[in-house]
Fold this protein.
Amino acid sequence: MILDPFKLPKHVAIIMDGNGRWAKKQGLPRIFGHQRGVEVAKKIINKTWELGIPVLTLFAFSKENWERPKEEVTALFELLKNYLDSELKNLKEKEINFRVIGDKEDFPKDIQEKLEFVEKATEKYNRLILCMALSYGGRAEILKATKQIAEKVKKNEIEPFEINEEIFRKFLYTKNLPDPDLLIRTSGEMRISNFLIFQSAYTEFYFTEVCWPEFTEEEYLKALLSYQKRIRKFGKVYEF
Ligand code: IPE
Ligand code: IPE
Ligand code: MG
């Protein structure tokens, strides 16, 4: 498998799905799937860094995932805390900028503080932007932006006719980031589940049956290779 280094995506987004089903197949509780999923995420972050892809966004916890049993949510918090504690050194060494997209304020105070600490400690880096989507929902993001813009209109800071795509984007969590070029979803589900719905308007999608805990670097390369074969038209006429 030969990747063209000049045709790599600038932004890869991944819906890391299928942890629970993978665990069930092994006869294990769901949390084992999440545990293994964290290890896979570390490997894929590393590979993205090695390849020199500038932005990676991982969907780790959705706005809707709060509806899950309390024990599962608490176990996910523990995994997140351990990840942040154990990975900070590695993030710094690799000069990775860690960012959160989503409603950080939904999390318990100790997690919010840890997230902000790691964001702050890595803000000067840019070898890779690692965006973690936590308590993220695309509809909530769009509504939040709309409310903030409405406030500005009310204060006469902006005229309604001036609102355009460029301005709207400034109110999204992903401001300053390019739209994802490639979106990967594991576990055979073929839906977007409220992930980056505004930003993925022209994103290339790649679905695989493989569950996240068994996703490998090789599977990742397959997705990237598939991306490199696509012709992106953005609504224009494409001449061969
Ligand atoms: C994805 O795996 C991880 C999170 C949503 C936190 P799931 O937990 O959704 O696993 P399945 O889809 O139930 O197998
Ligand atoms: C999307 O997966 C969220 C994450 C991977 C964090 P879900 O498992 O929550 O999505 P649905 O419920 O299958 O659509
Ligand atoms: Mg799922």
The chain has a mean pLDDT of 97. The longest strand covers residues 128-136. The first helix runs from residue 19 to 25.
